[in-house]
Design brief:
elongated, about 40% helix, 8 helices, 5-stranded antiparallel β-sheet
């Protein structure tokens, strides 16, 4: 069985697609190329891949739409290729769950390094697990019912959590006092490789703080550990 990593390169520019495919193959990777999202979807059904390199700007279905599809249906890491000026696309792509991005024009060696880094991290942590059915946590003035995905304060008021906020909170509650860096948090909340240079976890932490902290600007529950990441500082009781 061939264990060489298999990379799917999706780009509508023929020259980029072919040159990149040859470069990656020269450096020990198996490569399949696709000219658009439709071709990529066909390839995904017929072969197993370890990572997708995905151009954002393509005719027909764009890369962000395909990235969303990949996040909903697979655990494949995704590296986006974006235009230098399209910062919005990069941010949206990271929020959708892309692992990393490289701006065009790019040095193939840089992309190769990013690919290797993402693949290395794919097994850096054990897979994320959903909270056990019926698991309940109490901390501060809050109680989280993991089965119902319901966060309630001591007055009985329910605070609605997004899926990302819920997963992030359960990661913190199951590891109180443990310093978790961004890569670990991203992997544990999304169940796959950690993202390189992905700061979307910071936005997720900020949103969670606004919901559970008495003063989000001076948090007491989710603390920032400078140079390290984040940790949950309160006592957690499992009910």
């Amino acid at each position: 069985m061939d264990t060489t990593p298999h990379i799917l390169v999706v780009d509508d520019h023929h020259d980029i697609r072919e040159l990149l495919g040859k470069f990656l193959a020269k450096h020990g990777l198996r490569v399949t190329t696709a000219m658009d999202a439709a071709a990529a979807r066909k390839s995904l059904k017929s072969a197993a891949f370890d990572l997708v390199v995905l151009d954002v700007m393509m005719p027909g279905e764009d890369g962000l739409s395909l990235c969303r599809h990949l996040r909903e249906t697979t655990s494949l890491p995704v590296i986006l290729l974006t235009a230098m000026a399209e910062e919005t696309d990069r941010i949206v792509g990271l929020e959708l769950g892309a692992d990393d991005y490289v701006t065009k024009p790019f040095n193939p060696r840089e992309l190769l390094a990013r690919i290797k880094a993402v693949l290395r991290r794919a097994t850096a942590l054990p897979p994320s697990k959903e909270p056990e059915t019926g698991e309940r946590y109490r901390f501060g003035r809050w109680t989280l019912d993991a089965d119902k995905r319901e966060l309630t304060d001591d007055t009985g008021t329910v605070e609605v959590l997004s899926s990302g906020e819920f997963l992030l909170l359960t990661v913190f509650l199951s590891r109180p006092g443990m310093v978790l860096n961004r890569d670990q948090l991203l992997d544990l909340t999304r169940g796959r490789s950690a993202r390189v240079f992905d700061r979307s976890i910071d936005n997720q932490v900020s949103r969670l703080r606004r919901k559970i902290e008495d003063d989000p600007k001076h948090p007491n529950l989710v603390l920032t550990v400078w140079g390290g990441g984040y940790k949950f500082s309160d006592t957690v009781e499992r009910l």
